[in-house]
Each structure stands twice: as C-alpha cells, then as structure tokens.
Amino acid sequence: MPVTHIQHTAAWREVLTLSKLKAGERVVILTSVNSNPDLIAAATHAASDLGAVVVRLDIPPVFDLAQLGTDPTAVTGASPIDGNPVAIEAMKAADLVIDLVFLLFTPGQKEVLASGTRMLLAYEDPETLVRLVPTEDDRRRVLAAKAAFHAGRTMRVTSAAGTDLRAEIGDNPITAEYGYVDEPGRWDHWPSGFVARVPNRDTAEGTVVLAPGDIILPFKSYVQSPINLTIEKGLITRIEGGFEADFMRQYIEDFNEPDAFAISHLGWGLQKRARWTAMGLYDKHPTIGMEGRAFAGNFLFSTGPGNGRKTRCHLDIPMRNCSFFVDDVPMTRDGRVIPSDQIAN
Question: Does the pTM of the predicted model rise above 0.90?
Fold first, then answer.
C-alpha cells in the first residue's frame, strides 16, 4: 500500500532535521518535468513546518541524444543548471538545496557546493524514502568505513563466482553517502549508505564475474547468467557470456567513447535496512535503484568517468557474495559487512 502524505512529510521532516535545517534558513527546492509531485509537496511542507523560507525553482530539462530510457543516471557529465547563471546564483544564495531533478558531480553543482550551500538529492518513490529514512548510526558506520578505506593503499575483491580484481588506491577522494547533509557544502543522496572511490588510474587488473542476482544499473535488471569481464590497466578489455554480455557490450560501444570501458568507482554497501530484492517489486520508471546500490555487503562496481577519463556512459553494478579487502584487511566477507570495531582490531 502507498504511504500517506502525512507519513511522507514526517519522513522529510526527520531527514531535514538531521540536516540541521533551522527556522529562517533559505531552502531552494529544485524541480523539473521529471520531478515527482509527491516529493515536491512533502519536501515543501516539511521545510515550511520547520520554519524555513522555501522557494521552488523549476528549470528546463537537459536531454542527451545518447540517453536511452528515462533514468537520469544513464548519461553523466551534464545537468540542467550548467550554463544557467540564474539557477546557480539562486542556489548559492540558499542554505539548503533539495534536488528533485538529479544533479551529479557537474560544474554547476560543484560551484554551488563550493559556496557552502548544502545539497540533498532525493529521487526514489515515497515508499522507499519512508522505509529508508537515514539515522545517526548510518552516519557513524559510513564514516568508519570511509576512515578504513582512506587508510589503505591497495584493494582487492574476490568471490566464489570467480571475481578477483586488484587495484591501487589513494589518488582519488572517497564518496561517503549516509543520506543527509549536516555540514556546509555537503552533498548527499537519500536513500543511500555506502562508500566508494575511483582507484588509481590504470591500476585495476583482474577478472570480474557478474553472477545471477547481481544488479546492472541503469538497466534496472538482475543478472540471469554469468558475465565475465577482463580488466587490464584500468579498462574492460573483454566482455564474455551470453545475451546479457552482448547487451552490455553493445550498450557501452554505442556511446562511441573509448573511456566508456574504464573502471570508475569501487566500494561497498552499508545500509542494513536496504533490500536486495526491492528492485524486483517496483516499476522501473520511478526508481534509479538506490536501494540496490546501498544494501549492506554489496560490492559496488562501476564503469565510466574518473581519473581524467571523460565519458557519458556510466554503469553501477551492485554485486552480491563478494569479499572486499583494503590492504588485505576484510571490509566485507562473502557479502557480509565486517563491523567497524572488528576492522579496527
């Protein structure tokens, strides 16, 4: 059954409180034609209830001819605010931007964050948001994982299915998402709960085997038969398997960008309340699969931009039953998160 507007608004109020929204602060709610009206209403009411000064900024969408489907994660590198000084200045004047459009690591967004504006992205359906309201414990676990990741210089991922991937780390920052924005200039995404970073350029080497049940985003599909990826010097050089391997290879090739085959961020999921099965119960259109990216113990493997490589193609692939090591210390084992107190020991 769907959640009520009262339940949805209460969830927004809780997340905005965690985000330290105070009476009198200025909030811009960024919307476009792809924004969910239920999210707009609940976010507006929650921010207003907390005493914020709320403005809705509706902007034209951006469309790339390389994009298939309606998922905003299908093409990276551009957003509707890039080159729009009116939108950028309005967002910089805000204390908090609630992004219901989907901005992700683009020049305009970085400019807004550099001004000190907090930015919270939400794109899932109301039912998922209400189930996965973040907590202070989520923050604690994510930051503990970030610290362990930051201390390492190498990483390795293995699985019984045949994955054995190694890379050097340390040159690139860590993305640590826990679902709310409690510091100036912080960006985060509700729902979430994971850490990830791009390995050092050209250092990823080995094999990744996508096993049945792994998730490919933005395809929003569960793998049905094994897909074998050979990785050399940070690039996928072979994609082998059946129909799904052919589909994946053709999808990447159609971008006609060599860097589309590069390895992007790698990390692991930490959200204990996220469910691997959830994507199979929802229509594809209203979700971008964040629950799949965040469920506890998944190895989040991705392809595309990073390390100076530029491509519009980006795949996120949460994999089950993997063991993730930082400097040979396990962060996950067979798809189960190692508690942070055990990592410290």
Answer: yes
